[in-house]
Amino acid sequence: MSYSLTYEVRLPSDYDTEQHYPVIFALHGMGSDEQDMLRLMEPLQSDFIIIAVRGPLVQGSGYAYFQIKSIGNPVRELFDASVQGLQQLMVDLSAKYAIDPARRYIAGFSQGAIMSMTLALIMGDAIKGIVAMSGYIPQFVKDEYKIQPNSELSVFISHGDQDHLFPLQLGEDNASFFHEHTNNVTYVPYNGGHQVTPDLYQQFQQWLRTDAKLVTEDRKGMNL
């Protein structure tokens, strides 16, 4: 099974095809859409190429990347198809736009966080960092997928202590799992539910800017 993924792109106002820009692939939660993620990422548009991707499945008034059998248990066929489709889309768009291959980020909320963490675990050096807000890593991803994350992967994981869908323990488990693969893990538990709070909104933006800037400085140093 394969999907044709709908997406929208926002380019920095000074976009120049001769330059290379960091990119954020933004993935929404179940029942939402790419417009929600564009609004969430809007303050970063001056620094990053933003590519918001719509899930291929209709879910209520919005969309989803996969359906679930129960909480924590995605329908495997649909999940696998979206993972493959998103990987291919990232490859295709990285060739189409002036994207810095050393600064590719994925940011997602809920289902988008689940996809972000999965993609980071399997795409190796193709991904520099992720922002995963209020998600989990399916057990079959841990047990059956070929996991090969970038050893320098930067990870920002957040989870609300009053999340009614995914308990806080899942956020802690996410952070612990990534700690096994990289030293660059920022875990932010916060007071709130299954939502992006104003404080979290500011925190993940600052984290992305800082991480992308540090990569630039490291590359400049290597070129001396």
Short synopsis of the structure:
With 224 residues, the protein is an alpha/beta fold. The chain contains six helices and eleven strands. Belongs to the AB hydrolase superfamily. AB hydrolase 2 family.
Please provide a written account of the structure.
The chain is an alpha/beta fold. It has six helices and eleven strands. The protein has one domain: Rossmann fold. Strand 8, helix 3 and strand 9 (129-133) form a beta-alpha-beta unit. The protein is globular and about 45 Å long.
Write the layout of secondary structure elements.
Elements: E1 7-10, E2 21-27, H1 34-41, E3 49-53, E4 57-59, E5 62-64, E6 68-70, E7 73-74, H2 76-96, E8 99-109, H3 111-122, E9 129-133, H4 139-144, E10 154-160, H5 168-179, E11 184-190, H6 198-222
Parallel strand pairs: 2-3, 2-8, 8-9, 9-10, 10-11
Antiparallel strand pairs: 1-3, 4-5, 6-7
The number of domains: 1
CATH structural class: Alpha Beta
CATH level 4 superfamily: Alpha/Beta hydrolase fold, catalytic domain
CATH topology: Rossmann fold
Taking pLDDT < 50 over at least 5 consecutive residues as the criterion, the unreliable ranges are 219-224
Helix content: 25-40%
Query: What is the overall pLDDT average?
Result: 93
Question: What is the CATH architecture assignment?
Answer: 3-Layer(aba) Sandwich
Distance between the termini: 48 Å
Q: Write the element-wise H/E pattern from the N-terminal end onward.
A: EEHEEEEEHEHEHEHEH
In this structure, how is the largest beta sheet organized? 7 strands, mixed
Alpha-beta classification: alpha/beta
Rg calc: 16 Å
Number of helices: 6
**What does the overall shape look like?**
globular
Count the E strands. Answer: 11
Estimate the strand proportion: 25-35%
Strand order, main sheet: write it out.
1-3-2-8-9-10-11
